[in-house]
Amino acid sequence: MTFATIVLTLYPEMFPGPLGVSLAGRALREGTWAMDAVQIRDFAIDKHKTVDDTPAGGGAGMVLRVDVLAKAIDFAREGHPGCPVIAMTPRGKPLTQERVRELAEGPGVIVLCGRFEGFDERIFEGREVEEVSVGDIVLSGGECAALMLLDACIRLLPGVMGAASSGHEESFENGLLEYPHYTRPAEWEGRTIPEVLRSGDHAKIAAWRKSKSEIDTRLRRPDLWERHIGVRVQSASGAQHEVQDD
Ligand code: SAH
Predict the structure, then answer these.
(1) To 10 degrees, what angle do helices 222-245 and 202-220 make?
(2) Which listed residue, 117, 119, 159, 174, has the most CB atoms within 10 A of its CB?
(3) What pLDDT is attached to residue 166?
């Protein structure tokens, strides 16, 4: 089945953009996934096609109107009732590979892109919209964030990347960073490839990669490491508990 992506944006010309080239582009042409970039302004209510207004309580910038957004979402949902609606916002839950995998296994996704100061808060509960952030950074609009989210989903669709994407060794798939890669030349500017990778001993290579993955995660991403260790301790104590019960 075709994975449906519907992007609600003030800049539909930004899509499919980078997703129209390379493997995602080929998959788009082959019908593995489809994209509909919808102009939010088409759902404006007044004759000036206004989509934003000044913030309640004062302050700089403009806020996207809840009534206009609701009409755009209702339109998208009508065509794709099974698809979750995700708003890109730095106030959202950080995007994870786990959530990406869930989305990629579903029928598709409706993505709402903000601009200016963002969305009127009432839209999230009023239309059951999931808030997602792509990192602790502030972009000028949700479009680049939407492209990131969609790229991560599309590469997981069956047939898009072949065997490579289903590999569970990749970063985050097991809660760790992936081990580092090397290729020819064996020596470059005096720097060599770790000897073990040229040994041909698959068990040794696997052990080295596992250990590198753990060391690098611990050093570079203590947050991921803590979680990984936490999960291990939890399952170990769970197992112990079972033994005691017996
Ligand atoms: N005033 C907002 C930022 C608005 S940035 C705040 O401080 O929280 C304008 C738009 O860019 C947002 O509505 C959102 O759609 C998008 N955006 C910016 N940073 C983002 C991020 N880290 N993740 C997802 N979307 C982001």
Answers:
(1) 110
(2) 119
(3) 54
